[in-house]
Amino acid sequence: MPRPILATIHAGALRHNLGIARQRAQGARVWAVVKANAYGHGIERVFDALRGADGFALLDLAEAQRLRDLGWRGPILLLEGVFEPRDLELCSRLSLWHAVHTEAQIDWLGQHKTQTPHHVFLLMNSGMNRLGFAPGRYRAAWARLNALTQVDEITLATHFSDADGARGIAHQVAVFEATTRDLPGGRSLSNSAALLRHAHEASVRADWVRPGIMVYGSAPDFPEHDLQHWGLRPAMTLAARVIGVQHLQPGDTVGYGSTFTADRPMVIGTVACGYADGYPRHAATGTPVLVDGARSRTLGRVSMDMLAVDLTALPAAGLGSEVTLWGRAASGAVLAVEEVAAAAGTIGYELLCALAPRVPVLLQD
Fold first, then answer.
1. Cα–Cα distance measured from residue 311 to residue 294, given in angstroms and rounded to the nearest whole number
2. Catalytic amino acids?
3. N- to C-terminal Cα distance for the chain?
4. β-pairing, 5-10 with 361-364?
5. Rounded to whole angstroms, how far apart are CA atoms 215 and 17?
6. Interval 210-248: pLDDT, tens
7. Is 330 helix (H, G, I), strand (E, B) or coil?
C-alpha cells in the first residue's frame, strides 16, 4: 500500500467560502485569487469549485495559460503585471488583464503592437510600500495610460497592509479616495482581511474585491478571530496514520536532538508525516494535532518523514490511527491550519503553499 499520508481538497468548502466572500462583497465583482497554484491546493483541483467567481487573479503567465486550457473564458488578472515587454504578447493572445505599477510597464505598453486594447489595473502605493505609484505620481501615470491606444480600460487599485490588525485601512482608504476622487474607472480594493473586517465601511466599497486566503478556509486575522467566527470551512485537510507506537519511561527522550524528555510513563505514536511533506520542521513540542478526532500534541523534533504525537491520554489510539495535521478529521472535528502555523511561528498561508509534491492529493466534494 502507499505511504499513509493524504491531502484532501474539499470542493464544497471552496464553494462555501467563495459564497461568504460574495456576501461580504456587497455587490462588487469577486476575483478568486489562485496564485501560488491556488495556495497549494492546485489550480486544476479548485477550478470547478471556484468557477462561480467573476474572474481569477494570479501572478504567472503559465498559470493563466492553465486556466484558459481548462476552458475559462472570463477575466484573468495578473496581480503583479508583466515582467518584460514580450509578456504583453501573451496578454493579448490570452486576453489577460494586468496590473501596472511602474513607469517601465507603461513604456512597454506604449511600444506594444496589438489589435485588442488591454484592460489594466493601475496600482497605487497608498502605504504598503511594496508595489505601485506613489499618490503624487498616480494621476500622471493614469494620464499616460489613458493616452495610449493600447489601453482600453483602467481600473484603479490599491492593496491594504494592515486590514488584519488594529491599524486598519482608514489611512490608506483616505489617501486612495483623495487621489482618485474624480478619475473615471472602476475601483479594486479589498483583500480577504478587508472583506471580513471592514466590509461594513461605506468607503471600502468597490467594483472588484480580491479574496485570497479566506477562499481556502483560513482566517486572515487569527488569533483575534478563527475560521468559525467568519463562517469559513477548511478547504484542505492533511492527514496521516500512526505507523509505530513506543512506550516511554521517565527520562526517555524523543527524536533527533532529544528535545523532549518524558517526565512520566507515556505512549507515543510515530506518524507518517515530516518536513519533506510540507509540515514545518520548526513546529515545537505541543503543536496541536487531532488523533482519531481528539486533540493531542506533537512531541520532539519533526524529522524528514516522521513526527511523534502524544497518545498517553488516548487509550483507544494506536497503530493505524488517523492523525489530522490540519483540516477536518473523519469525525468532523476541525483543526485550523492557522492554529498549527501559530504554534510553529508562521502563518497558515505558508503551510498550505508548502504542501510537498510527494503527498498524494484527493479532490472530494
1. 10
2. 35, 256
3. 24
4. parallel
5. 5
6. 999 999 999 999 999 999 999 999 999 999 999 999 999
7. coil
Please state the rounded mean pLDDT for residues 315-340. 97
What is the DSSP pairing of strand 253-254 with strand 288-291? unpaired
Give the chain's count of helices (H) and strands (E): 12, 19
Q: Letter for the amino acid at 317? A: A
Q: What's residue 1's pLDDT? A: 76
Instruction: Residue 329: name the closest of 6, 2, 27 by CA.
Output: 6
Note the pLDDT tens digit of each residue in 35-88: 999 999 999 999 999 999 999 999 999 999 999 999 999 999 999 999 999 999
The per-residue pLDDT for 199 is 81
Cis peptide before 223 (omega within 30 of 0): yes
Dihedral angle at the C-alpha atoms of 165, 11, 35, 24, nearest 10 degrees? -40
Q: Is the dihedral of CA 35, 40, 45, 51 positive or negative?
A: negative
Sequence-distant (≥ 6) Cβ neighbours of residue 238 within 8 angstroms: 5, 6, 7, 273, 277, 278, 279, 324, 325, 326, 327, 355, 359
Per-residue model confidence (pLDDT) at position 129? 96
